[in-house]
Design a protein that fits this description.
Length: 246
Amino acid sequence: MIGNPFHVLATIDSTNNYAMGQVNAGPVADGSTWFALEQTAGKGQRGKQWLSAPGENIMLTTVLQPALTLNQQFMLSVAISLGAFDFFSKYAGEETRIKWSNDIYWRDRKAGGILIENVLRGNVWQYAIAGMGININTPKFPDHLINPVSLRQITGKSWDSLELAYDLCRCLDERYSRLHPAIFDQQLAEYKTNLYRLHEPALYKIHGDIFQGVIHDVLPDGRLCLEKGKEMLELGFGEVEFIFAN
């Protein structure tokens, strides 16, 4: 069960790094979770850092042992994304979306991100290290960040980040515990229903080329189907950049 056990760390470089160290040191129970009050070197997608004032936001990592094959790994990402979506939309409302592949958005602003790192033993997918950062109480973000938003900015209220972290674990576990090939189609359909910019013309960038495109689909292996003019592109992670208005 995600969040059982649940460990609270005062200060750590990165909850993903810490969880990875636990896995490398010996067996770790499925669902073991570490929550940090402070991160000094939080990890995001493509090497980006994710930092937060102490106790302000949710920074946690859960260690999972998915009963899936490696070619099904995107479906774990779908389940974790839906769990984070369920959690944030409960408090922020129906304008919450999942931005491909697994960011949490509110309107056109980023509320949280997910980073899943895999541990393989030969061809066996032994562990998934699922880290996430959710903006909860930040009142104002640095100017150099493009489009962040916190739950406090959305609702005008301050929140107990630790109590919300427990609720996030419950939402994640609800999705993870039902993850099975028999419902892959259903979960992927729900993921796409809540996908940011689905069927909406918007700006994207590939290899320096900025163009107007339309997202039409996400395939079971995670590739994004993006219409560019008369061409339909199938793109992997990191191959396209979403462009936002200033």
